[in-house]
Amino acid sequence: MKYTTSQYAMALHQAIAETKPIDQEKVLDNFVSVLKKNGDLAKIDEIEREFFKYEREAKGIKLAEVTTAKRLSGSDEEKLIKDLNEYVSGQVELKTKVDEGLVGGIVIRLGDEMIDGSVRKSLRELKNELIK
User: Fold this and answer.
1) Cα distances (Å, whole numbers) of residue 54 to 11, 12, 25, 47, 93
2) Which site in 55, 119, 128, 129 is 20 to 30 Å from 1, CA atoms measured?
3) Contact, 28 vs 36, CB < 8 A?
C-alpha cells in the first residue's frame, strides 16, 4: 500500500506528539525504517515540509509566503510580522522570497488568501482603467 507524503507526515507528527522526548529518537528511527521498507526515502524532504506544516497548525501558527522585489530589512520584516499577527489575530511565520520581476511592492499569500500590493498589479490596473 502506497502512502502520500501528507499521510506520512501526519502519522509522524502524531507519533512524536504522543511520545516522551526520550523515546522520540526511536520513533524517528522506526519511521525511517518504514520509509526505506516502502521505497519512499526519496520523499523525506517533502515529508519534512508537511510535518512542519502540521507542527505550525498544532501551535496555531499560520505561514505567510511573502514575495518582494528586494530583500526585506530586519525592521521591515518585524513590522510585517506584527501587522500580519494583528490581521490574523494570531501568530504568523514568514517565508520570504525575492522576485525582481515585481518591480516593487509586496505579494503575501496567507493560506488561501492573496494580498497583492505589487507595483506590477498597480500598473496593470492603471492600464486597464486607461483602456476603458
Assistant:
1) 10, 10, 19, 11, 13
2) 55
3) no
